[in-house]
Design brief:
Blueprint (H helix, E strand, L loop, with lengths): L1 H16 L3 E3 L7 E5 L2 E3 L1 H13 L7 E5 L5 H12 L16 H4 L7 H4 L4 E4 L17 E6 L2 H19 L9 H9 L8 H14 L4 E5 H6 L1 H11 L6 H5 L2 H8 L2 H5 L2 H5 L1 E2 L9 E2 L18 H15 L7
Parallel strand pairs: 4-5, 4-6, 6-7
Antiparallel strand pairs: 1-2, 2-3, 8-9
The chain binds adenosine-3'-5'-diphosphate (A3P).
Length: about 325
């Protein structure tokens, strides 16, 4: 078994070594590899390719899908709290002591933890999902997307923090202009962002009952309505009785950024989904401001308009607007 998996790993490494690469100014890893139309760091890509052949989700499971920095942690926390509420009311939720990324594992990073789970997550684009995980196979997918201007800023902040942690040299800081340029060219992790969004958008049109398309901004603005819709989608809608008991609000409060940010597991824990990951990430890095429109503090109006135009051009004819 061990030998087989080593041979498979070698095969994947060999494949990755033949792929087109680009420099990545945003990370200490330095290189992005292009695979099936998207860009990745080597470590993540090797796991993605292994998952394509080896990962089979549980029938009837739900996969929470996202591009990084679009609200993955929030969607995980809410979905986990919703689906476990009969065992754990919000005041006793495992989320109070376990990080959302540990409660709902990324199947490509932690396949053995994800096996047998009914709620898992992924950053893999729709068109590269393992065949058994696609909506056509019967899985349910909930996709969260977010205004790309806020995504690019959130990603830059996150990677900058990580880069500073990994690399003490004072020159590690890269400018937002460089990160923005890279994002607009589609050369960001799991990018191009527009293709990531479009893949799931098209799937949601093709399989409306099996693909839920959630927007971060809507979730912020109309949290209660979105949380109820999410519960319905997950197959465990709230009863009137539960609503009267304040369970919906309890879950919303539990999963708010303020609440999750203050927990010990956030302040002291680190995200390390697999031993082979070349770095770990401080849990607190996943919670920053959690606001809509923070991009205005970092990008100019012109930069914002440029990115909006790129998205509008790419989304033309798809029926999708951001
Ligand atoms: P900002 O950097 O704009 O603050 P992901 O979970 O996909 O990594 O995305 C992280 C982004 O979601 C960060 O955005 C983070 O602050 C925000 N976020 C994390 N948890 C949240 C929550 N419970 N409610 C709202 N936003 C949240």
């Amino acid at each position: 078994e061990q030998q087989k998996s080593t041979a498979a790993d070698e095969g994947i490494k060999q494949l990755v070594s033949t792929l087109p690469t680009k420099p990545d100014c945003n990370s200490t890893t330095n290189l992005l590899y292009q695979y099936q139309g998207f860009w990745y760091h080597q470590f993540y890509l090797e796991h993605l390719i292994a998952a394509q052949t080896h990962f089979t989700p549980e029938p009837n499971s739900t996969i929470l899908c996202s591009y990084p920095k679009t609200g993955t942690t929030w969607l995980k926390a809410l979905s986990f709290a919703i689906t476990t509420r009969t065992h754990y009311p919000p005041s006793q939720s495992p989320l109070l002591s376990r990080f959302p990324h540990d409660c709902v594992p990324f199947f490509e990073l932690a396949p053995s933890v994800a096996r047998n789970k009914l709620l898992v997550a992924t950053h893999i684009p729709y068109t590269s999902l393992p065949a058994a995980a696609a909506a056509a196979s019967g899985c349910k997918l909930a996709y969260i997307c977010r205004d790309p201007k806020d995504v690019v800023v959130s990603l830059w902040q996150f990677q900058r923090k990580q880069k500073k942690e990994e690399d003490d040299d004072g020159d590690a800081d890269m400018g937002i202009e460089e990160a923005f340029e890279q994002f607009c060219e589609g050369n960001s992790v799991a990018g191009p962002y527009w293709d990531h969004v479009l893949g799931y958008w098209r799937a949601s049109l093709e399989f409306p009952e099996r693909v839920l398309f959630v927007r971060y901004e809507e979730l912020k603005r109309e949290t209660e309505r979105c949380v109820k819709a999410l519960a319905d989608f997950l197959g465990c809608g709230f009863s009137l009785e539960e609503e009267k008991q304040g369970i919906v609000q309890g879950i919303i409060d539990l999963c708010s950024i303020e609440s999750l940010k203050g927990l010990d597991v956030t302040k002291n824990g680190r995200f390390a989904p697999t031993e082979s990951m070349p770095y770990t990430i401080h849990n607190s890095s996943f919670y920053r401001k959690g606001e809509v429109g923070d991009w205005r503090n970092f990008l100019t109006e012109e930069m914002g308009a440029r990115l909006d135009k790129i998205m509008a051009d790419r989304f033309a004819g798809s029926g999708l607007g951001l």
